[in-house]
Amino acid sequence: SCVRDTISEYGCMLEIKDVRTFPDGSSVVDAIGISRFRVLSHRHRDGYNTADIEYLEDEKVEGPAYEELTSLHDSVYQQSVSWFTSLQDHMKEQILSHFGLMPDRESEPQSNPSGPAWSWWILAVLPLERKAQLAILGMISLKERLLAIRRILVIITRKMNSRQELVNSRERNN
């Protein structure tokens, strides 16, 4: 039988903010992503996976491309807020207790070399498969990442609306 390779092509360096250890030996680690990387090569040494990596930063844009990016940034942020606001209270509470509050919209979308903090928050809370998360993590174009978030939000919103329409039609027919 073949052992599946468990090293991802992309990853995120974490800064540990807090560790809470419980009497049963388990613990909860509170961490924040600080920089993305791509795995160039990896190996197994002394019982540990090790890797050579390169850090990723978003490509900067200027002029008309920057104006377009700023407009896209603002509209996808508003779309993200609208989606989160539309969730049922218990779902919002679960997300907030696990991920904290959604970061505010940055006035300058390119101020962080890894992109706006709110965009990573929304990607963390959206119901995405690991493969999709890793593909988005590896994108160095903020515009492409924002377009991906927009597509995901449109799909999820359509599913939520069609489920609600189904519930409403059942209630009318009863």
Automatic annotation (TrEMBL):
InterPro entries attached to this UniProt entry: Lon_prtase_N, Lon_prtase_N_sf, PUA-like_sf
Domain Lon N-terminal stretches: 1-157
A GO molecular function held by the record: ubiquitin protein ligase activity
Transmembrane segments: none
SUPFAM superfamilies: PUA domain-like
PANTHER family: LON PEPTIDASE N-TERMINAL DOMAIN AND RING FINGER PROTEIN 2, RING FINGER PROTEIN 127
Name of this chain's protein: Lon N-terminal domain-containing protein
Lineage, top ranks: Eukaryota, Metazoa, Chordata, Craniata, Vertebrata
